[in-house]
Amino acid sequence: MIEIRDLKKVYNGVTVVDVPSLSISAGESVGLVGNNGAGKTTLFRIILDLIRKDSGEVISKGYNVSETDNWKDYTGSYLDEGFLIDYLTPEEYFYYIGSLYQVSRSDVDLKLDMYREFFNDEILSKKKYIRDLSKGNQSKVGVIACLLQQPEIILLDEPFANIDPSTQIRLKNILKQIERGSNCTTIVSSHDLNHVTDVCQRILLMEKGKIIKDIRTDSNTLTELESYFSVQQVESFKSIDRS
Amino acid sequence: MTLSFFQHQWKAFWRSKNTGKSVAVRVVMAFLTLYLFLNIVFVAFFLDRILDELFPSETVISAFNGILLYYFLMDILTRFQLQELPTLSVRPYLTLPVTRRQIVNYLSVCSLWTPFNIAPLLLTLPFLLKQVLPFHGAAIFFGYLVSIIALTLFNHFFSLWFKRKVNINSWFLLGFVVIVVLLALLDFHWEVISFSDISRSIFNGIYTMPLLCVVPSILATVIFLVNYNFLKNNLYLDELRSDHSGEKSSTDIAFLNKFGIAGQLAALELKLIMRNKRPGSSLKICGLMMFYGLLIYTNPAYGTGYGWKIFVGMFMTGIFIINYGQFMFSWQSSHFDGIMAQKVKAEDFLRSKFILFYCFSAVAYILTIPYVYFGWEVLLIHSVMFLWNIGINTLIVLYFATRNYKRIDLSKGSSFNWEGVGASQWILSIPLIFLPYVIFLPFSLFGLQMWGILLIALSSVALLITRNYWLDLLVQEFNEKRYTIAEGFRNE
Questions:
Q1: A149 Cβ contact list (under 8 Å, min separation 6)
Q2: Which of B345, B486, B490 sits opposite A69 (nearest CB)?
Q3: Domain CATH number, residue A202
């Protein structure tokens, strides 16, 4: 579904993304983990053709993302508030996104009704613009907006951040449902190792722009990841001690 | 403490991401301000002679007394429009061990540094030194000086307080302008009241009894304290925020839905204009510009030639394209990533701009039809320039938009707001202003004005007909530049 070859992005002499090859097949759910600055968001942006890469290519379902717009037809994404049009009401925003994908208003309404529990009565008919919603509620709007069409690829950058625990669990259920019910490929980044190992079949661990681990999730994955992140911790403590 | 606030402001300025450009802009601004001040000083220096010419029957002092109040009324009016509330982003300090008093003090002191407070002194001090001090003595001189400073401060703090208090929006301002016009009519036209007399009696009082200058001083102190207390009691995050949001409703602009995705996008941008402060105020400026013709057409100095009419016609029918279009794409900087990642074709995106420009130009054109009162040529030229605007200026503006990488915060007002201004806007103004004359002037020099107009019309129509070709070029240009644009918009 997504093929990445020789991908490289350099900012001011620092390589922020360096992925020689990565292949994600249809229906896979991939979790992207890594500390701040590991290059997760940059990788997302390159996959969505929002920033120019220095070399390599991203092929989505056979289309080179920087050459055509076709991939937009089946890709739903929410990276940050920069995806929301903040002077619209949530309804207006959903209808607008729906219209881009030829989803009629009544179908949008039906879809939204499915996620009523997820919204927890804080989004719809609140008579507020998106900019007046809290960060967590904004993120709910963004996540649901990319599910309105029938996407074949979903990219979410830290969807679990900012939202309350109940919503986190609901979001996990939604993602699992997508995984089970359709052939949709999902890539989700998160700092919450519990959630990400729970939801995703495959975990990519990034460090300094490189994918250093590519593991199938099993019962040991969480421990493995935890030990990776805590080892780093111990090392940094040591370096503090030394200095 | 105040010192470290200053330091922080200083650093905030120099370390801001677009400092490079903003220094250049500030240098230009500084020169303009300096030039303005030089003019003021020049006027001030010859104020006694000017007054003598204007009011030959009165003594210079009496004439001076007569106009002072007008000045301060004008002053407060311009302050309402242009003076910005001092901005220290107080949020990080509120929870630190900094007293409210210190923050408020800083905000008050900092706000004093504005041209509005320097201008009155520049304007009157030379006159006072030249006419009052040598002939009427030091007491009267100081009486005037203190009252003028006090009135300046009064205006200053009053406008700050008032602006914060009622959270002035543009409609309010419009009401205010109407009142002022009414008062002016009452004074000059119907001669029911005379501010001149009021002004004279006030300042004659100070002239005869300089100690009376304590009265304006007290007024200034009172309003300072009012402002001070207001700030101090309202230094909460949610109350300092500028817009108090009421209920918001969803709306639908059915007319634009006919144009497919491009129409949807245009409707979206219409909402952007209506629901955000800066584009909103820029639209109101467009509204005011509809009166521009009155200034020019009623003034015989501009002659009967077509030269000025071309300019006025282009400006009035195309004001939206010029004024709003110069910041094209920046308006959407906060959600540009979203537009790029969603299923929006570059072609539709640009087409939506055409729709928007055509609609607003058409409205402006219709609004300016009454200028036919000044002759049928006026209507003809307006029509031709309307075609020029939608045919050519639209393309020019959109071409430059692909070279504009500056983020704009929609929630700030537009007066004295230089955010988003860069080289691209300055360069853009050159073809906008001169291109029609490149066509018109050669004909006009040979006395064939009508042929010039005709050629302007023909070239506009030619570009309108071949629009899709130009649109393709724009799409290519846009696709080439979109990474840079998106990158620029991400930098806050």
A1: A74, A76, A97, A98, A101, A103
A2: B345
A3: 3.40.50.300
